[in-house]
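Annotated sample (chain length 124).
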Amino acid sequence: HVQLVESGGGLVQPGGSLRLSCAASGYSSIVNCMGWYRQGIGEEREGVAVSDRGGKGTSYADSVKGRFSISRDSAKNILYLEMNALKLEDTAMYYCAAIPYSCSRVPPLGAVQYWGQGTQVTVS
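Output written by the structure step:
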């Protein structure tokens, strides 16, 4: 079992920045792909960015390309999401996700095996 705990959300003005963190524990060594998904009120959950440990790099949703950056500290089992130039439409609950296989693009929701509890990001 893998536990994921997010932190770093908050209230920020448009154009501002935030950094989200996700601490992974448990059998996190079996996880090849980790990523961030988000869900706004009344909206479906969508993929934001993923990072593949096996060398397939990173992938981003078109809506965040050039503004968000995903990275991971494998030694500490922490996943980060650096968010810059935040927009009102970035307001959402952000969830850390663990996918058991490699990913070269953001996988669909059904591929996620473990979810964190979420951290709220509000741009206002």
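Annotation: The CA atoms of residues 62 and 72 lie 21 Å apart.
Annotation: The mean pLDDT is 93.
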